[in-house]
Hints:
Chain A is α+β, with helices and mostly antiparallel strands. Chain A is built from eleven helices and 15 strands. Chain B folds into two domains: about 5-80, Ubiquitin-like (UB roll) (Roll); about 90-155, Orthogonal Bundle (DNA polymerase, domain 1), CATH 1.10.150.120. Chain B has helices at about 25-35, 90-95, 105-120, 125-130, 145-155; strands at about 5-10, 15-20, 55, 60, 75. The chains are: A alpha+beta, B alpha+beta.
Amino acid sequence: MRPIEYVAAKTVQEAVTSLAEKGDAARPLAGGTDIIVQLRGGRRQLDRLVDMKAIPELNELTYNASSGLRIGAAVPCYRVYGNAEVAGAYPGLIDAASLVGGIQIQGRGSIGGNLCNAAPSGDTIPALIAHSAVAEITGPGGSREVPVEDFCTAPGRTVIQSGEILVAIRIPAPAAHFGACYMRFIPRNEMDIAVVGVGASVVMDGNKVTACRIALASVAPTPVYAAAAGAVLAGKEATEENINAVAEVAQSAATPISDMRGTAEYRTHLIGVLTRRALQSAIQRAKGA
Amino acid sequence: MASEKTHVRTTLNGEATEYLCETNQSLLEVLRDVLLLTGTKEGCNDGNCGACTVNMDGRIVDSCLVLGVEAEGAEILTIEGVATPEGLHPIQQAFLENAALQCGICTPGFIIASKALLEKEPNPSEARIRHWLAGNLCRCTGYDKIVKAVVAAANTIGGKK
């Protein structure tokens, strides 16, 4: 890893100014579990790292049953799944946050960092999309909000412009009878990159689904919000036939490649299996909610 | 680039410890090369193997993925801080008695990780132990003996020997 300037910002404004000064030669540092590996491996060359962990807004996790959840961009995964209220309200996010890397990674790595790293396989991203999360961004020109499904633009690329930072991720308060789930397939039990990941959420009225969101990982250059798949189930009964129909539309929303983790055909098959299972789990959770 | 060193103050194994480090040095490099505490091992150097696991502010972390400068103000526990002048920690003793190590490169990481688990959950199930230790790789002993050692240590600490 070549020499680099380290700045521990104390405020959002200080971070924005420090990043803007260096343009593309500076990046924010949160848990470091991706960026330090990238710098050491020479996949990224930077002159400055701006540490976000001492900025209060980026380190806060706040939940309110009416306004919902706000996760500071530098809050590590363990704080999210370690909060019983949050865990109860956002089960799909908890599924994802508790399987990113191992315990060591979860002790440092943040959900905001997982989103900004914008890997097609980022486990928390489909979960965030399923939960209708919104990214709060601040930069030299002010603040803006972007739905998480519009945040990633290519592998490793996002809507974040030079000098901008992700301040927090906001998730609305769950509706009554809301349930969500994130599932991935990996060939081992832990510590692997998703061959396919599926996030699903539903709002139930009896056995009828009033709203449904499906999002996919590792099946396209960015995480995919399969809006058409969720729409198949809205207003319908949660029957096996209808769930199968969602899975079929989800399969058609993906553009998977073949690589060392699996062929495109295998990934397409997995999207079907995991969409059905994640949806069934989300429905069960909604019925218990 | 700026190459003057940064002055960092930490509490390391219970003692106030200050060091000077480059901004591009990992905490692992600082521990081994600056402070000469070579008990913490380098394995993959990219956060997969857990050989460099240390406890930082009560959480286990891969010290290869922490910059030395990020440890300002932190409380760090390495393998050197686990035994006492009176003897080995029960987890260390259990690893010996259960033959849970061969080459020993992964052992400091496993012991630091296991210690954090048992302090949080004194009676973890075997499945929980395996889940907790998933970020620590062993390439020679095998996990069964390691898991048995952690169970044995839990029993010793809980007085159920």
